[in-house]
């Protein structure tokens, strides 16, 4: 995983976990990687992963079953989508709108590129 300098690593790892959940790779109510295993996979300090897991627990996206491990909550997908949509609308969309306005890009052009992106990256 390539980390960016403009955002805390634990938040970037949380986004990675959220993506796994949204794509169905880590289904609801299923056990996820241990702190140690995810730290090894991402080549980060286990304390960073623990901070990520605490952050996701506070958002009720994952839960800890003492002695067993961490599990995806039943409503994780809805919670992630709600949180990510709000973040997208406040942080990323205004910059996106500014760019398409300045470059005079039409909604039709955006739609065509979006459809191509979905087809190439998320085949059913």
TrEMBL record:
Pfam families to which the protein is assigned, alphabetical: GntR
CDD domains referenced in this protein's UniProt entry, alphabetically: WHTH_GntR (cd07377)
SUPFAM superfamilies attached to this UniProt entry: Winged helix' DNA-binding domain
Domain HTH gntR-type, residue spans: 7-75
GO molecular-function terms, A-Z: DNA binding; DNA-binding transcription factor activity
InterPro entries attached to this UniProt entry: Tscrpt_reg_HTH_GntR, WH-like_DNA-bd_sf, WH_DNA-bd_sf
Keyword annotations of the record: DNA-binding, Transcription, Transcription regulation
Protein name (database record): GntR family transcriptional regulator
Species name: Hufsiella arboris
